Amino acid sequence: MDLAKEFIGEVLNERICLASNFSSNLFSSGNEKKNLTTSSCPTAISTNKQQELAMIEANKYLENSMSVSIHVLLGHSECKEVGDKMCSAMQDTEVWTFKLHHQRPPDSIGRPPMLPLFLKQALRSQLHFSPLRSWLTAKTLPNGLFPVVRVLASDHLLLNSISSQVQSHKFPACCCSTTASGGGGIWLELCVQWLKREYFLSKAPILCPSIE
């Protein structure tokens, strides 16, 4: 389970920091361009708190043998202060789903498992080269929208969309630990879904009733 927590923390830290960097750049003075890197966060205290709370939420699901899904959504900037309340603009753009199994997943039998180190490298590559990160880095997010990161048990992406709008990648199963006898153990399945870039919001939807 420790390895799963490490990978979940990696995704949470990168995506929360990316969202925080984007928010900071929205309000930067002049025409200075800043790189949206995750090496340092402009609002470190706030970002660290978000990461801590998100990890606590993820641990609750793991301890109850539930899957953990990290959702990156777009919402109205004006709704940022209302906490967990959903706003009418909320659009899922990316979902990372982690599932733990106490035996090897049937659909992975016959294929070589992925070693933890290689899974970490593949995860980082997917995070860095994702359409979402490219979109935010290019600062093409429409005015009035704000990225939000949430931890949920559900991995449903875009309930009102059609499958042709979504792409996904399922990483090979990874054995996180084995029993003393060398068999069984805990297996991690990791899948990421994302909205195709051409279906990202091009403008902010009508304002929520609560802020009109």
- Which stretches of 5+ consecutive residues score pLDDT under 50? 27-39
Overall shape: it is globular
* Structural domain count: 1
**What's the CATH first level?**
Alpha Beta
**Topology pattern, helix = H, strand = E:** HHEEHHEEEE
Question: Approximately what portion of the residues adopt beta-strand conformation?
Answer: 15-25%
CATH topology term: Cell Cycle, Spindle Assembly Checkpoint Protein, Chain A
Topology, number of strands: 6
Number of helices: 4
Corresponding CATH architecture: 2-Layer Sandwich
Terminal residue distance: 45 Å
Estimated helix fraction = 25-40%
Describe the structure.
This protein has one domain (2-211): Cell Cycle, Spindle Assembly Checkpoint Protein, Chain A. It is an alpha+beta fold. It is built from 4 helices and 6 strands. The chain has helices spanning 2-26, 44-63, 116-128, 131-137; strands at 68-76, 91-101, 145-152, 166-170, 174-177, 186-195. Strands 1, 2, 3, 4, 5 and 6 form a 6-stranded antiparallel sheet that branches. The chain is 31% helix and 22% strand.
Compact summary:
The chain is built from four helices and six strands. The chain has 212 residues and is α+β, with helices and mostly antiparallel strands. It has one domain: Cell Cycle, Spindle Assembly Checkpoint Protein, Chain A (2-Layer Sandwich).
List its salient traits.
alpha+beta; Cell Cycle, Spindle Assembly Checkpoint Protein, Chain A; six-stranded antiparallel beta sheet; 6 strands; about 30% helix
